[in-house]
Amino acid sequence: MDIIAILGLVGAFLVPVLIMLYQERKPKISVSCRLVSSGDPSAIECVVSNTGGRAAEDIRIGFSFVLLNETALLSLSDTSVNLVETDIPIQFHNLKTSDGSFSLIFPSNLPDPNLKESDANHVRAFAIHVNSVPAKTNVEFRLITKDKENRRAAHQVMYIRDDITRRMKIFVERLQQDAPHVVRKLNFEDFIGARIKLDCFYKPSYFSFSGGREAIKFLSKDESKAADLMGSIFKAHKDNYPDLFKKQKEFIAPVIRVRTENGVSTTAVTPPFGTTVSLFLEGDDYQKMIRGEQLSPPIPKKYNYE
Description:
This protein has seven helices and 15 strands. It has 306 residues and is of the alpha+beta class.
C-alpha cells in the first residue's frame, strides 16, 4: 500500500474524530419547563441544560404571554439569572358568546404585527436572561406571582378546570358508547396533562443563544397530540351533548393583574370547552365592550371557590 493510500485512510479516520471532538467542545443548550405543583397556573420552573463541552453565554428564554404583576424570579442555582422587561403592543379582543352577547376580554398570546401603536395597549412582555451556563451543568429558576389577586385568579382557574375535567370525562364516556371509533386513539390523561400546562399564566415560547434559536416544547408530543385530537372531537360532537356544554354552571371569569407601560392593568382569562363565564363590569364598560374598546375589568369581590 503506497503512502498516499495510507494517508487517505488515516485522514478518513481522523476527520470524523476531529469533527466529533470539535462538536463536543461546543455548548449544547436545551430548555425544559414544568409546573411547580398541583397544576398551579401562577408558577413555573425551568431548567437550562448545557450538555456540551464549553460554557454557553448570553442565553435568553422568552415567554409569549403577559407579565403578571409582582412576578418574582427565584434562581435555584448559583448562576446569575435576570428578568428583562420590554414594552410590546398586544391586541385585546372581545369574546362573543353563542347568543351574541359579550362576556369576556382576553389578550392574544402573541403581538399583532399589523397593530397600530395608537390602537395598542403596551403590555410588559419579558424574557429571562442567563449570563452563562458552564459545560455539563444545569441552571434552574422559578417564576411566581406574589400578587394576591393573581393567586386568587389561579385558584379560580383550577376550580374551573376541575369542572372542565368532569364534563370532558363524561363527554368521552358517552362517545365511547355512541361512537367508540371517534375516541379510540384519545389518551384522556395526556389531554388533561396538556390542559393543565395550557392554563399556566407563564407560557415559555423559545430560547436563544450563540448557537441559534429554538422553540421550547412545554407540552410533550403525546400531550400535544391528545390536545389537538380532543379539540377536533369537541368541535365535531359538542352539539350532541347540550347538557354538558350549553346547560351548565356559570363561573366568574378569573381576572389577572398584568404589567403595562403605564403601570398595572387587568385582563380576564378565558376557560375553554364551552365553559360559561361572567365578567363584572362598571359604569359604561359594557358599551365600551360592544364598541370593541379595551377594558380593564375589575377584580371580582368573590370567586366561585371562595
